Known about the structure:
Layout: H1 22-34, H2 44-83, E1 89-96, H3 99-109, H4 115-121, E2 126-132, H5 135-146, E3 152-158, E4 171-180, E5 185-196, H6 197-212, H7 219-248, H8 291-299
Parallel strand pairs: 2-5
Antiparallel strand pairs: 1-2, 3-4, 4-5
Helix pairs in contact: 6-7
Amino acid sequence: xxxxxxxxxxxxxxxxxxxxxxxxxxxxxxxxxxxxxxxxxxxxxxxxxxxxxxxxxxxxxxxxxxxxxxxxxxxxxxxxxxxxxxxxxxxxxxxxxxxxxxxxxxxxxxxxxxxxxxxxxxxxxxxxxxxxxxxxxxxxxxxxxxxxxxxxxxxxxxxxxxxxxxxxxxxxxxxxxxxxxxxxxxxxxxxxxxxxxxxxxxxxxxxxxxxxxxxxxxxxxxxxxxxxxxxxxxxxxxxxxxxxxxxxxxxxxxxxxxxxxxxxxxxxxxxxxxxxxxxxxxxxxxxxxxxxxxxxxxxx
Length: 300
């Protein structure tokens, strides 16, 4: 878990981030970072202490929310690793969005530059990425995680079934997480991205390329990236087909159990018993764990 976080690197306060005094806000942040306050005007020290307290409190809420979700993921991961033959979770990464990137989003989206405005408009300050071996595992992990009764599914973006134009694939789920503080319960957003190893490799390369070219990537490289995304998707499909064949021969294998391939979508447990409200399908009869339907509902 992240520790020793510097609150001045995360998020501005309501008092400082005003459209009319952005320069003052940045100057004060610089003072916080360098602790260069000896020549400040009277009252500045108290103001800076209050700023630091607010920054710390705001950041900790997102850290606590992220920790809550990470604990749930680790419980699932350890359960599979210690009690079953196969775990659908390969890797887990996490991060808190930096102050600079949050400010960029505030400017791009035209968000009200206050803590309250940012809290409601920017939902990926805390982010977790789960990597799986197979596409079906990505949806399986999402089903198990989102079925937990103290998590609320706010938004679903299924970029696996509907990739972005550049080829990006991933399942994005925005969760609202209760954080139980000493005097109240605070609800924060945590974004969970779930993708296969192949999708993650492609996304990592694409991110590095955009960083190298500062967003202005030559068209020929963009074309190659799209082609690589198609090949990554084909690899995922081929690996799933191989798993199906291995699973079909499982009973003839010298060792019992599911082994490294794990259960296929056809023979793994029905997720209905994981999902709250699964006894009450939608008006069209679609169960709530249908991700296309989930995506449609969270967009409305």
